[in-house]
Write a structure and sequence with these properties.
Layout lengths: L2 H11 L3 H13 L16 E3 L2 E3 L3 E3 L10 H6 L4 E7 L12 E4 L4 E4 L7 H11 L7 E5 L8 H12 L5 E5 L14 H19 L7 E5 L8 H10 L4 E4 L20 E4 L3 H15 L4 E5 L5 H9 L4 E4 L1 H6 L3 H15 L5 H4 L4
Parallel strand pairs: 3-4, 3-13, 4-7, 7-8, 8-9, 9-10, 10-12, 12-13
Antiparallel strand pairs: 1-2, 5-6, 6-11
Amino acid sequence: MSLFYKVGTSVLRSLPAEKAHVTTIKLLRKGLGPTAPRRDYSMLAINVGGLSLPNPVGLAAGFDKDCDVPDAMLRAGFGFVECGTVTPKPQAGNPKPRLFRLPEDEAVINRMGFNNKGLDHFAKRLTARQGRPGIVGANLGANKDSENRAADYVTGLVRLWGKADYFTINISSPNTAGLRKLQGADAMEDLLGRLSETRAKLAGDDAAAPMFLKVAPDLDVTEVDRVVEQARTYGLNAIIVSNTTIDRPDSLQSAHASESGGLSGQPLFEKSTKLLSEFYNEAAGKIDLIGVGGISSGEQAYAKIRAGAKAVQLYSALAYQGPQLVTEICDDLIARLRADGFTSIEEAVGTA
C-alpha cells in the first residue's frame, strides 16, 4: 500500500463514519482511487451463477448505493462489484447518525434505511458505463412507504434490465421495517414467482441475466431447505449468505455496541459462515452460493470458500484496512490453494 493511500485511509478514519464514506465516494469519482497491481490470478477465475469472474472477491452492496463508482472499485481489484441497494423512488433513509464504527470489534453498525437516489439515477449510471469491462450487479430493494413491496422489486428488474450484469433481491436488510417478512414462505413464493415470470418475459429467446437472493444471517436453520427449494424452483442462480445481523454478541467491546441496526464485520464471521455451511449441505451443488460476513483476510475468504461459497463479498473491512485488502486476499488465496494442492479455486469449494 502506497504512502498516499496509507495517509488517505488514516485521514478518512478521523472523520465521522458517514462523512468518511461520502468523502470516499467523492474522491473515487474524481479518479483518486487505487489501481491493483497486475497479477496472474488465473487460478482464481470461476463461474458463479452464470457469471465468469476473474477472481472470486466481490464488493458487497452498500458501499456504492447509487452506482457512482463501480469502475473505480473494479480497478481496485474486485472480481465483481454489486451496487445498491436501489429502490424505485429516491429516499433519504433513516435519521442521522446511522452509521457507526466499532473499532475495538473490527465491526460496523448501520441503520441507513436504503438511502439512495432512485432507479432513474442508477439506470443512467449503468447506461454511462455500458461497453466497459467488468461485472457490475444491481442490488434491488423496496421503498419504505411502498404499498406493494413485491411490485417494487419487479419495477427495479424491469428498469435496469439490459444494463446490470446480474440482480440481487435484497429481502434481508434489518433497516426497513417489515422487509424481512418477505423471507417467509408465502411472501417469498409470491415475490419470486413474480420476478421469475417478469425475467422470462424480459429475456425472451435470449439468455436471462442471473438473479441472486440475499438472505439474513438470523434466518432459522430450519428454513434453509425451504429457501433453497424456492430459489431453485423459481430459477434463481445463486444465494448470498448473508446480510447484516440484528444479534449483539456478548463479546462486543465498543461504546456503540448497543446502537440499533445491522451489525457487520468480524463478529458476523462465525455466524454467517455456519449458516453458509448449512446452505451448502442443503443445496448439494444445485445452486451456487456467495459468502459474505466478516471477511478481512485471505484466511477468512478461504474459510468461506471451503465452507461452500464459490465467491465472496466484503465491505466493512475496507474501512479498517484500506483498498489494498483485495489484492492481499487474492494473493493469499493463491498461496493457500497451492499449499493445499489445488490447481483452481473451484477445487477448494466445499472441501471443509
